[in-house]
Amino acid sequence: MKLNLPPAGTLTPNDEHDPLPYYYRPFIGWLYRKRLCMGLDLLPAAGGRMLEVGVGSGVLVPTLSAHFSRYTGTDLVLADGLQRLVAPSCQAEFVQADLLQKSSLPEASYDAVICLSVLEHIADAEGAAAALARTLVKGGTLVAGYPMVNSLMANLFRAIGFGNIEAHHVTAPAAIDKALGRVLRRGPRKALPALAPVSLALYQCGAWIKD
Question: Do 55 and 74 touch, CB atoms closer than 8 A?
Fold first, then answer.
């Protein structure tokens, strides 16, 4: 599934921490877009019901809504103008929702769920994993992506002008993997850089299946 990035200036950040400007910068923009492409590559065949957790400014909305017949985008805060990003052939809705509130998302309702750069911000990894698993139908696929959480990553974020990332990245990949592995079956995985061991990857995406 090829990323259809909206032109610069057409999206609105959903809060002060939204990384929207970074998608359009030289070099660092490639890294930000690459993590999205990694996640898109792991999604199942299009056409079903899609849930995006952490829709942000709507960077993925044009791509996902063009490939799935029904799309739901959620976040703690919804940006303005999300509906205009939806492909004409898709039935879409946007819901302000907290992943950890059990009643905020319907159970067993989605064929695919994508959750990129969200889980590292949630201290309750077990609760988040269980909530994501609940939304999937049997046989459904979750694609989750998250960065390395350590001093190296914190320094890299500071180098691009994103300071104090330690206050936002609170859960490391190993804890996220362990939590997801309790409720879902591990599928294919991608890492950035591509040949890096998972423990050394700057960013990783994995597919998880609900049996």
Answer: yes
List domains and CATH numbers for the chain: 20-209 (3.40.50.150)
pLDDT greater at residue 29 or residue 156 = 29
**Cis link prior to 193 (omega < 30° from 0)?**
yes
Q: Pairing mode, if any, of strands 49-53 and 70-75?
A: parallel
Confirm whether pTM is higher than 0.90. yes
Q: Do strands 49-53 and 185-192 pair parallel, antiparallel, or not at all (unpaired)?
A: unpaired
Burial of 140 (0-12, 13-18, 19+ CB in 10 A): buried
Q: DSSP class of residue 21?
A: G
Q: Provide the pLDDT for residue 167.
A: 65
Number of helices and strands in the chain (H, E)? 5, 7
Dihedral, CA atoms, 80, 84, 87, 90, nearest 10 degrees? 70
**Max alpha carbon distance in the chain (Å)?**
44
CB 16, CB 58: distance < 8 Å: no
CB 72 within 8 A of CB 50: yes
Q: For residue 178, which phi and psi values (nearest 5 degrees)?
A: -60, -45
Whether residue 198 is predicted with pLDDT greater than 80 in this model: the reply is: no
CA-CA distance, 40 to 28, in Å (whole number)? Answer: 19
Q: Which residues is 143 bridged to in the sheet?
A: 114, 207
Name, in order, each residue with C-beta under 8 angstroms of 80's C-beta and a sequence gap of 6 or more: 12
